Amino acid sequence: MKVLGIESSCDECAASVVESGKKILSNVIFSQVDLHRPFYGVVPEIASRRHIETIKPVVESALNEANLALTDIDGIAVTYRPGLIGSLLVGLSFAKGLAFSLGKPFIGVDHILAHLYAPHLENDITYPYMGLLVSGGHTIIARVDSFDRIEVLGTTIDDACGEAFDKVAKHYDLGFPGGACMDALARKGNPRAFNFPWPSLHKGNHAFDVSYSGLKNAAVNQLDKFWNREFEKNKENIAASFQKTAIDILVERVLKAVENLSLTRLVVGGGVASNSYLRQRLNREKSLEVIFPSLKLCTDNAAMIAGLGYHMLISGQRSDLDLNAEARVRDFRKTYP
Ligand code: KG4
Ligand code: ZN
Predict the structure, then answer these.
(1) What is the pTM of this model?
(2) Whose CA is closest to atom 7 on ligand 1?
(3) Is 99 part of any domain?
(4) Who is most buried in 59, 97, 223, 290, counting CB within 10 A?
């Protein structure tokens, strides 16, 4: 079964054909990063307008790369939540139009579950496992029981991990997108140059939660102390010290969750899963099987949408053509979705 996946939840316009939930026949990603760079962040109106221009050629490229015609496709999967509403609507409407005109099965896919599915495209992974989703919009620690069932143990109480990277990078003018630029700079810096604070979320319901606003503010406020031009010399040190603290906070929480639930496998997904220090830090855990997606499948892509869509479709799930886009998921503190 060949599923066409479409992803347009943020600033990547992507389409992919995946066979049997595993074999990637094509994976086309049109990134808008150059368009948003002058603003140091994704501008929703610009993103959705650009998606309208690129969605058709991106889907055509995915079919061409897979050497398939639209009629060869057995089902259509598309991200319907969470994300920027205008961006989501472009992919969702396009997918609905295709499904209706071709009379093919249609399924709306949750972007969070799709990020957790991404490593399955390249590895044979058995459930259950601990899932760690770290992206620009989410930071989630969850027990994953199947492709569409997770129990959320912890999340961020304020900023997402990737968002904190992006904001600090913006304040220091370190480049866009911030996470990858900070990661590159950090390699040349001293991670112990600055002593940034840790959140104190130890008790009760917060046992597996993280918080990034305190760390972000501490790193940003450090800039005020640099007006004597010391900052240029310290760019790499700021990046390295911030990155170490941000990732150590995450690792401490996820390892605690793994131990608490006596799991032996940890699967990581989302844009921050590309982070070299996170990979190095978790791969040090010899008693734990740690699985990361390849770099291309960490950040937003449509292969993860097609892959997860396949499993939803073969389990009999279908979405109606009146499915609406949803910008956010309100409550993570329960079995999800
Ligand atoms: O998964 P993704 O492409 O989009 C969302 O669903 O949010 O993740 C994008 C996020 C951004 O915040 C970006 O700065 C971060 O992932 N990111 C990184 C790295 N590469 C991307 N953060 C830290 N280190 C990296 N190497
Ligand atoms: Zn994402």
Answers:
(1) 0.96
(2) 136
(3) yes
(4) 59
